[in-house]
Inverse folding.
């Protein structure tokens, strides 16, 4: 396929992309029909029907990707007529392209175009999830540092912080920190939290925040009082998680958060090295 044609098709597909009020990208079926080289609506609906079946088989809700809407078209003598149309997500367009006539150049292009666009969206989503986890880990580190300071201020030393934290882990996981490290295959020299999924990082952070608040609010002046408070809070968080079907000790470990952070930084550096499209 010639470069000029690829550029032309890319421009056409992107020109017809629209967004809902909530920012969800979509295309209208009657626009896609012509972009994919189908002159007759009924013929195009046959392809759409196959795409809907593929959507359903893949476990996605069809109405979430193929939404029925109406479209007003101009008729002779200034009259108007409303005809049925569909709002299609990027995934729906991808399925339509996959079920279309691949001998058509437009279909061959769309198969690749929407596959790439879908992959881009998946990469963006994963990057956001990675960034959220790195942020949650940093937040937990800051909160645990604050708890250590509270212990120092109110007990007269923070040598008991590691002991109190391990008590919290036992209350949250139902097993010791060392047992969880063995379960997740965490190196002895690394903190358990570096391999915890985001939900656990936020759970630990929430329990620790409550401990800090109550330790200050009630002027707890002994290690045993703060430790008891931390155990109670972690048990309460565990109870909430279990009620929502989440068993902390049964969750798989996440990728080493240090590796994730290095990857994000590396990607940022590469992005900064790329010339701006307007300047190229």
């Amino acid at each position: 396929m010639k470069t000029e044609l690829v550029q032309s098709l890319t421009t056409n597909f992107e020109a017809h992309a629209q967004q809902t009020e909530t920012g969800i990208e979509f295309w209208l079926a009657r626009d896609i029909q012509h972009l994919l080289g189908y002159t007759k609506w009924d013929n195009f609906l046959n392809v759409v029907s196959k795409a809907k079946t593929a959507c359903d088989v893949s476990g996605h809700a069809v109405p979430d990707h193929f939404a029925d809407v109406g479209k007003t078209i101009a008729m002779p003598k200034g009259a108007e007529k409303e005809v049925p149309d569909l709002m299609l997500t990027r995934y729906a367009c991808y399925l339509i392209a996959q079920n279309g006539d691949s001998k058509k150049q437009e279909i061959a292009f769309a198969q690749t175009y929407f596959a790439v666009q879908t992959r881009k969206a998946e990469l963006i989503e994963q990057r956001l999830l990675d960034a959220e986890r790195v942020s949650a880990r940093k937040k937990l580190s800051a909160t645990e540092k604050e708890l250590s300071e509270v212990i120092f201020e109110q007990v007269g030393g923070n040598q008991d912080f590691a002991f109190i934290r391990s008590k919290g882990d036992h209350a949250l996981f139902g097993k010791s920190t060392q047992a969880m490290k063995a379960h997740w295959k965490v190196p002895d020299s690394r903190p358990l939290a570096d391999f915890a999924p985001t939900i656990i990082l936020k759970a630990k952070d929430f329990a620790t925040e409550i401990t800090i608040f109550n330790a200050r609010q009630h002027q707890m002046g002994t290690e045993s009082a703060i430790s008891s408070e931390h155990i109670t809070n972690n048990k309460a968080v565990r109870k909430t998680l279990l009620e929502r079907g989440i068993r902390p000790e049964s969750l798989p470990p996440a990728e080493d958060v240090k590796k994730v952070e290095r990857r994000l930084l590396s990607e940022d550096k590469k992005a900064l090295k790329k010339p701006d499209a307007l300047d190229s």
User: Anything to note?
Assistant: The first helix runs from residue 3 to 15. Confidence is low (pLDDT under 50) at residues 274-280. The first strand starts at residue 18 and ends at 19. The chain has eleven helices and four strands.
